[in-house]
Design brief:
With about 325 residues, this protein is an all-alpha fold. The protein has 12 helices and no strands.
């Protein structure tokens, strides 16, 4: 198990290095903004560009980039969005909004998704199961930005239950702030609820028809006791890593949802960095999203071995 974990971590860093290298080369192929356009910030940006080796060969630039960013945590300064400000500090200031919205979404979606999946499996081939399965397929098939537009139109514009955009400021734990993020939370949660309910229903339905469940019933356990003590525990083996991956993924946020609802998080910052050609922000956020995605995959794979003792990662 230890050998497998070390191997996966080594592969993760290798893939991360390859993706980061590709992003760096592609950015360098794009045209750079003329410092004259920065006005009073021209001298500051020119000095930072010289420190990053912009006038040197690309291999030298890449070495300086790795040394300053990965080892020195210096990702440069913003040249478009927050001109002259440190990229890392702006990134850190945007993280709480993303964490808040995605954490609320998980708190809302995980219990509801598990409940619907369990209820649908217990009512298999009945009208309740058909209704839930139809809704699950509908919500899985429709992109999240469609939910977002419907939520904005119905709940925010027509019924006026919530504001169209998230409140500005950093008072994240006030009631008005909570109401302003509810539309974004709902839009993020629908897809997670449907996906979690589908997997839970499929796994629990299979376990309920297993031979050991028949044995548990013949030993005197009621249907509820056999379901809780045996069926749920076995069906959660493939479902729990999925939930764990969702919790790790809360750091990444949602690019489209944050943009639509005005959430001042890293998702909207990533979109704005692309449209504004702010390359330093793009490099930092690309590295961040890549690392989060790779780390989530490793944690999910490794968690199988801890959840189910029968699974031994890396064994032949």
């Amino acid at each position: 198990m230890v050998k497998y974990v070390l191997k996966r971590i080594a592969l993760m860093f290798f893939v991360f290095f390859v993706i980061l290298t590709m992003c760096f080369v592609l950015v360098k192929l794009l045209p750079q903004t003329d410092p004259v356009q920065f006005g009073k910030d021209m001298n500051l940006i020119k000095m930072r560009r010289e420190a990053l080796g912009y006038n040197k060969p690309i291999l030298v630039q890449y070495g300086i980039f790795l040394k300053r960013s990965l080892l020195g945590n210096d990702w440069g300064i913003s040249e478009a969005l927050y001109r002259g400000q440190d990229v890392w500090q702006v990134f850190v200031s945007k993280m709480p909004a993303t964490l808040m919205v995605n954490l609320y979404s998980l708190i809302f979606s995980v219990p509801l998704g598990l409940f619907l999946g369990i209820y649908s499996a217990l009512k298999k081939n009945k009208w309740q199961d058909y209704v839930i399965s139809t809704l699950i397929m509908l919500f899985i098939s429709v992109p999240s930005y469609v939910y977002a537009l419907l939520v904005q139109y119905l709940l925010c514009f027509k019924l006026k239950l919530f504001p169209l955009q998230m409140n500005s400021g950093t008072d994240y734990f006030t009631w008005s702030m909570f109401l302003s993020v509810v539309p974004a939370v709902l839009s993020l949660g629908f897809g997670s609820i449907a996906s979690l309910a589908r997997y839970t229903r499929a796994e629990l339905s299979e376990v309920l028809t297993s031979d050991f469940m028949l044995l548990a019933r013949t030993k005197g356990l009621t249907r509820a006791q056999a379901t809780v003590r045996h069926a749920l525990r076995n069906s959660m083996v493939p479902v729990f890593p999925m939930i764990l991956g969702e919790f790790i993924g809360i750091l990444s946020g949602s690019l489209i949802i944050e943009k639509l609802f005005g959430v001042p998080g890293i998702g909207q910052l990533y979109v704005n960095s692309i449209t504004s050609l702010d390359y330093n922000f793009f490099m930092l956020l690309s590295a961040f999203y890549t690392l989060i995605g790779l780390a989530a995959g490793i944690v999910v794979d490794i968690s199988y071995g801890f959840i189910d003792p029968r699974i031994r990662m890396g064994e032949r």
